[in-house]
Amino acid sequence: MASEARQHAYVPYSGFAVGFALHLGDSDGIHQFMPGVNVENISYGATICAERSALVAAISRFGSRSFDYGVLVTDADPPALPCALCLQVISELCGPAFRLVICDLTGPRNIYRLEELLPHRFETFPGAPTTS
């Protein structure tokens, strides 16, 4: 699904298409995925990454859920990892045990737990939501 989604990326400035598929947890034996792609903007700060687009879409559609892994596909060699902004958002919404399957166009190359990629995540402040 991440490879398929990648074909819909809007990347007129960088040409760097990214696809992401967020696994929404096993609900009654049904596996659901939410795809996401990067969507660029001429104002680069308004660009959204594939990982965050999938998370925003999943929460918009299903509300808060259990997200246990995601699959990221790029054509980079070695395959690209999520940016620090995405890692921080994933950390808050998915928790440190969330797994990331990192792929190139031929298939999986590595699997990481979020805490390996972001060992010193921005911690929450008193009263803020927490993930475990």
UniProtKB/TrEMBL annotation:
Name of the featured protein: CMP/dCMP-type deaminase domain-containing protein
Keywords: Hydrolase, Metal-binding, Zinc
PANTHER family, A to Z: CYTIDINE DEAMINASE
GO CC terms in record: cytosol
GO terms for biological process, alphabetical: nucleobase-containing small molecule metabolic process; pyrimidine-containing compound metabolic process
Boundaries of every CMP/dCMP-type deaminase domain copy: 1-125
Gene Ontology MF term list: cytidine deaminase activity; identical protein binding; zinc ion binding
First and last residue of the signal peptide: none
Cell cycle found in the keyword field: no
Pfam families hit by this protein: dCMP_cyt_deam_1 (PF00383)
Family: Belongs to the cytidine and deoxycytidylate deaminase family.
InterPro entries tied to this protein: APOBEC/CMP_deaminase_Zn-bd, CMP_dCMP_dom, Cyt/Deoxycyt_deaminase, Cytidine_deaminase-like
Keyword Chloroplast: no
SUPFAM superfamilies in the cross-refs: Cytidine deaminase-like (SSF53927)
